[in-house]
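Quick one from the shared queue. A colleague (R.T.) flagged Probable purine permease as missing a structural entry in our internal table.

Convert sequence to structure tokens.
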Amino acid sequence: METGITSNNQDENNDKMSKTMKTVLLLLNCIMLGLGICGGPLMQRLYFIKGGKRVWISSWLQTAGWPFLFIPLICSYLHKKRNGRPETKLFSLKPPLFVPCAVLGVLTGLVDYLGTYGLSCLPISTSALIVATQLAFTAGFAYLLVKQKFSAFTINAVFLLSIGAVVLALHSSTDRPDHESKIKYYEGFFMTLGASALYGFILPSIELTFKKAKQPITYSLVMEMQIVMSFFATVFCTVGMLINHDFKAFPLEARNFDIGEATYYVILSVTTLFWQFFFLGAIGMVFCASSLLSGIVIATLLPVTESLAVLFFHEKFPAEKGLSLALSIWGFISYFYGEFKHIKKKKHDPEVVDPAP
């Protein structure tokens, strides 16, 4: 299903790649995405629980790690040079790709702020369940932007995930932290929902950018695109930090941090690394397969994040949250069962086409 909606350039490049290499890349990006979606929110919540109060600082951390990507990019460049490709450039991104990446980067910065604000108000287990609705937005925008087609199982999955979020919204009183007002809780809820909707738009937009690209899309180019997007997202959050005078607050907040000044900076550094794994893994999944699969993997890993939050932070897990989680898992199973049936049907009838244009 996924490979039917990737770009022509991407298909041509994938044809040249060995099946083993494509599988390795897919698994590598899935692992990075898993590390990011589980580790990132946990470290951010730890920052707020232990005395951190700066939303813009925490937002900035999500993409400030973009210089890390120069390490694999330079390794790839040197490898190509050694293998007799003197025309290889370290940075080959052309203006037709640079401009949309810059725009998507600014939008990513806004996602960072909305999501971080929500996480500062909500328990991780609640936030993760709301983020699961991103799949519905990704599916909708994938239909509009890249003409993704859906089976009944996919539609059912999207519906169940949406209902799960509604259950949380209607029973907020059982989950709201004691120190949090009802208004603050709803602010966090709708900020997180807004972040999910916007990132649900960004993933298919990246796929559309691949489709419209006028140069071959390689994994090295994907890393370049992620550098550009992260750079502009970081600039967006840097402006917010300057307006909010957050740079001056770093030393004071570090000194007053509940578990020590050194630990404060370690948490910030690790948070940056985890989120860079997430964003590279997400765009890498779009490159290897599709925006819809990237959204599916994110949604599938969220129950792991919820479980870790309950384990490490002893968050409440009332019946309503359990019902929401059950609906989410039901949605995931529905999607993958539909995929399994489609693959099985295709084996028996080779003329069956993937549900995509």
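Residues 2 and 289 are 5 Å apart (CA to CA).
The chain has 14 helices and no strands.
Added to the table.
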